[in-house]
Amino acid sequence: METIDGRASTALLTDQYELTMLAAALADGSAHRRCTFEVFARRLPNGRRYGVVAGTGRMLEALTRFRFGPAELEVAARFLDDRTLEWLRAYRFGGDIDGYAEGDLYFPNSPVLSVRGSFAECVILETLILSVYNHDCAIASAAARMVSAAAGRRMIEMGSRRTHELAAPASSRAAYLAGFDATSNLEAVRRYGIPGAGTSAHAFTLLHSGSDGAHEAEAFRSQVRALGVGTTLLVDTFDIAQGVATAIEVAGPELGGVRIDSGDLGVLAGQVREQLDSLGATRTRIVVSGDLDEYAIAALRAEPVDVYGVGTSLVVGSGAPTAGMVYKLVEVDGVPVAKRSSHKESRGGTKGAIRLARASGTIVEEVVFPAGSAPATGEFTARELHVPLVRGGELTPDQPSLAESRDLVARGLVSLPWEGLKLSAGEPAVPTTFAAE
Amino acid sequence: METIDGRASTALLTDQYELTMLAAALADGSAHRRCTFEVFARRLPNGRRYGVVAGTGRMLEALTRFRFGPAELEVAARFLDDRTLEWLRAYRFGGDIDGYAEGDLYFPNSPVLSVRGSFAECVILETLILSVYNHDCAIASAAARMVSAAAGRRMIEMGSRRTHELAAPASSRAAYLAGFDATSNLEAVRRYGIPGAGTSAHAFTLLHSGSDGAHEAEAFRSQVRALGVGTTLLVDTFDIAQGVATAIEVAGPELGGVRIDSGDLGVLAGQVREQLDSLGATRTRIVVSGDLDEYAIAALRAEPVDVYGVGTSLVVGSGAPTAGMVYKLVEVDGVPVAKRSSHKESRGGTKGAIRLARASGTIVEEVVFPAGSAPATGEFTARELHVPLVRGGELTPDQPSLAESRDLVARGLVSLPWEGLKLSAGEPAVPTTFAAE
What are the Nicotinate/nicotinamide phosphoribosyltransferase domain coordinates in residue numbering (chains A, B) (predicted)? Predict the structure, then answer.
């Protein structure tokens, strides 16, 4: 793979037809028409009430690596003419991108991104932009529901083994953005500065076995010796009550935590809390894991759980592993365009969007309008949702940090009307309306 | 990221606890015990009848890049002691791996991989191995059902935009392995030599619009001029019947194909076929796309569809985006080990597996047994399922090509009893039994 400043090119993370359309458009001259492409979701998956915009930072970074070097051009040369290859060789995106800030909420038809420039320079970004947004928005949107359900308890993302090895750090990032506290994934720790976390696996306990059977105490003693008394011991390899007793015997009542990874977590959490308290380990935390999703997390709200470890359901978007974002041409040389065939109507034209809120901060409506024609907002306060992300091909200064985007998610969740935080399937938390010019 | 021969290190695609367990095991001396870890799925997702082993080639390649250079050690040094860091600096996997050949079928409890070596050298591979297998097996298993449903018609994978940008080429590879014919993803074309394919998007037709509206004929003419009459024109941007008429008017009856991406594909395929035939375009192929999964593909079996383009449902594993593979310690210093806590019992010991078949080739049973103790097979022919993948840390010679693995999938599907190819939910196609020593 070609490298850009030592990093891999992203140019081939692209569908072939983007480049054949480019070739045809260069040949007939239409490639240079000024276009707007819009990224939006026609609907939220599975009766969700809101979505969380995620991936913006990753997409912008990938955009700076979208370059055709010799290795990329070698592949393109198999099906493209010389004119197109020359154009790709010199390619740098030189247009503008506006979009919802990373971490903002979105709803059906929210114009999450507006990509403007020549047809040629915009069309070839479609696959990469959608891949990043469809993945990251799906994970962050599921993660935010889990964070809501956890009601302030600590959340550790530990789903790396359940998803593609390079999707894993992106999932960790999206989860952290949505309010998770830490990740098990070391590449996410390095790349994004997310706090790392981890406990121990059953294998470690089983390793401490002999021909006479298992020595759980030996495993616990080893872990405490190596990692300190603040560590979390996994107590469910054999019998949980015995595991808890052994853990406190070995580590003393200052033990950091115990993890339960199987069984009826609600019942077990209560029993283990009682047992820990009776042993004087009143500050030892209870970590639960094992097929937790937002519903299971919510169901444990009344139980003495201190930390949730979430794996599979997080990285598969809890039933919605892709966000359904599309990248549609909406304007050509100042004229709105839209397809008209059945079931997939789109609204043409470059758009802006505002979100209306009561004085309390609770949002009531998303209004999408032809760019430059923001409607009157009546009694409500209005927030412009588009921020400039790219100007003339350059990232705008003052891109938010991941921590700032994380704060934006938290503020967004607080702004939802109360139905918006319901886990059950239903309508979007606020309607999206179109204001004609 | 550290690079190995110019390629990125995979060492941090790992959960933190693998390395803290390593530290504790190095400190107490248990790190050097001889262990077997086994990769298997406790069950197939969603009532599936079989799974397809995929990712072996990718995993083995990633294994050769599992090295801790300065960048990886810098992260590890934040929570590990010097002894562990020194050990990681020198790390090379030096053990053995046996496994089902890539492209073979698997069933619940099939010992898909058997990883043997010291605890230390094996445990830290868990996350990476599972990430690759859980992703690739999920995609290939879904793809094989789609290929069965298509009953020999051409299949193009075009789901890149619906999944993480770097999961996309791995999805293309898994789909091709399972019998898809081509991919839209250019990185998969480059990296794995999969045939590329593509048509055109609605944006290209809409680009050819003026203030007087759309000029579909102009778009079609441009595409045919640039890409030849063998191209596939997208005819559903406006009115499909008009689109087909315009397509043949512009391209003539030798047009390669038309694509329909919306509407009732079954009805439309019939109408379009009639229209094409009446225009003399009897060899123009009909390509359908738009939210196709194995059920929709099967439902179109009676219709004159020539090519299926499959996106979303493929890359999300058609409802099962992760394969549920686990990596379990099953033997320590020659003694079988297993956890005993509720609901997740494992069977200890290093294992082998054979698959029994009738003389006709139809398989009847998968038999798992303690390694070295293959049972008698009675009237059936038996095939050993484990092949050596790694010996003393080195990949075995004669690793199969992707084409060879693809052939193995095709042969596997033919070997299933007829119920095994049913799309409906049910039991695994053959039972997995354990033969005790």
Answer: 155-347
Tell me the nearest-neighbour CA distance from B354 into chain A, angstroms. 26
| Cβ within 8 Å, pair A12-B339 | no
Superfamily name with CATH number, domain A3-139+320-434: nicotinate phosphoribosyltransferase (3.20.140.10)
Task: Among B161, B207, B339, select the one facing A329 at the smallest CB separation.
Answer: B207
pLDDT of residue A2: 46
Identify the three-state secondary structure at position B275: helix
| Residue B155 CB coordination number (10 Å) | 27
Residue A42: closest CA among A435, A428, A300, A380: A428
Residue B301: name the closest of B316, B318, B288 by CA. B288
List the beta bridge partners of residue B39. Answer: B113, B327
The string of pLDDT tens digits covering residues A375-419 is 988 899 999 999 999 999 999 999 999 999 999 999 999 999 999
B341 to A238: CB separation less than 8 angstroms, yes or no: yes
Nearest-Cα residue of chain A relative to residue B260: A341
CB contact under 8 A, A21 and B168: no
Instruction: Give B-chain residues touching A226 at CB under 8 angstroms.
Output: 20, 23-24, 27-28, 81
* Chain B residue with minimum CA distance to A32: B207
Judge: B13–A198 Cβ closer than 8 Å, yes or no: no
Of A37, A26, A10, the residue nearest A95 (C-alpha): A37
ipTM exceeding 0.95, yes/no: yes
DSSP-assigned letter for residue A400? P
Least-confidence region, from A146-160, B154-168, B204-218: B204-218
Across the interface, whether the CB atoms of B15 and A160 are under 8 A apart is answered yes
Residues of A in contact with B329 (CB under 8 A): 202-203, 206-207
Every domain of chain A with CATH number 3.20.20.70 lies at 151-316
**If you measure CA to CA, which chain B residue comes closest to A2?**
B6
The answer to whether A12 touches B184, Cβ cutoff 8 Å, is no
pLDDT of residue B378: 87
Alpha carbon of A330: minimum distance to chain B alpha carbons (Å): 9
pLDDT of residue B102: 98
Q: What are the tens digits of pLDDT across the range B215-242?
A: 999 999 999 999 999 999 999 999 999 9
Identify the band that residue A1 occupies on the pLDDT scale cut at 50, 70 and 90: very low
Partner residue opposite B13 with nearest CB, options A75, A168, A201: A168
Which chain A residues are Cβ-neighbours of B216 within 8 angstroms?
none
Given a contact cutoff of 8 angstroms between Cβ atoms, the answer to whether A60 and A389 are in contact is yes
- Regarding the domain with residue range A151-316, which homologous superfamily does it belong to in the CATH classification? Aldolase class I (3.20.20.70)
Location of each CATH 3.20.140.10 domain in chain A: 3-139+320-434
pLDDT score recorded for residue B2: 47
Distance from CA of A361 to the nearest CA of B (A): 34
Note whether A135 contacts B164, CB cutoff 8 Å: yes
Report the residue of chain B nearest A290, measured CA to CA.
Answer: B344
**For residue A33, which residues of chain B lie inside 8 Å, CB to CB?**
207
Residue-averaged pLDDT of chain B = 95
- The CATH number of B199-318 is 3.20.20.70
DSSP A161-200: GGS-TTHHHHHHHHHHHTT--EESBHHHHHHH-PPB----
A-B CB pairs within 8 A amount to 337
Q: Are B123 and B41 in contact (CB under 8 A)?
A: no
Nearest to A339 among B8, B20, B237 (CB): B237
CATH of B3-83+93-139+320-434, one of 3.90.180.10, 3.20.140.10, 3.40.50.150, 3.50.50.60: 3.20.140.10
How high is the pLDDT of residue B77?
A: 98
Query: What's the token pair of residue A380?
Result: 């409500």
pTM: 0.97
